[in-house]
Amino acid sequence: MDIKDIKIIHEDKHIIVAEKPPKVPSQGDPSGDPDMLTLLCTHIKSEHPQAKNPYIGLVHRIDRPVGGAMVFAKTKEANAHLSKQMQEKTFKKYYMAVVCGVPENERGELRDILVKNAETNMSRVVKEKRGRAKEAVLEYEVLQTVDDEKEGLLSLLKVELKTGRHHQIRVQLSHAGFPIWGDTKYNKAFTKRRGWTQIALWSHSLRFTHMKAKKPSEYVSMPPDEFPFALFKKEEQQ
């Protein structure tokens, strides 16, 4: 993995919006594998050789198995500007997810309390907000449902992440009864499957206001044209 494998969606003096490939960490981790922060730092150095120690700020994270749009700050001012929008909840994050089954409601809000288990690196829904438990909120819309001969009923959801908890979308959708296809942690149909299965969750779009603009802009990353996303109409994934 090197910078040539990273798609740059948008870049200017203040930010970089890039498409994180699945399996690539958002930032460095104990595996030592190439991560987005390091790769983009290399990119800036190659574009601007005079910048020996360029600034690259992590604004948000995406689970390692998940791909899609991420924004990084190229200045401390831009990082502060984006972080403020995150705190004020004006920074919008949308995901595409293929789930097993069909949600009862075409649109809905999921509001749960999650707690993370550091030993297993998994989160779960609990009844009370105690200790390290935190509220998690998302909204979803069912865009299309198909009946696959092998996998059965699958639904394409557009998810707006209202909070940013550990494995939030994966945990909440599973708890609601429609787990994400390919999720080897929270979908019982996949936990015992051998080998790698690509989770059908994709960071589709980010909507925020650039520090040099007055109105929000949207930056989009389309899910790969592979199973199971390929089962659904492209216009539904715009």
Automatic annotation (TrEMBL):
Keyword check for Isomerase: yes
Reaction catalysed by this enzyme: a uridine in RNA = a pseudouridine in RNA
Annotated Pseudouridine synthase RsuA/RluA-like domain residues: 14-175
Superkingdom field: Bacteria
InterPro entries in UniProt: PsdUridine_synth_cat_dom_sf, PsdUridine_synth_RsuA/RluA, RluA_PseudoU_synthase
UniProt entry tagged with the keyword Isomerase: yes
Keywords for the protein's UniProt record, in alphabetical order: Isomerase
GO biological process: pseudouridine synthesis; RNA processing
Protein name as annotated: RNA pseudouridylate synthase
Originating species: Peptoclostridium litorale DSM 5388
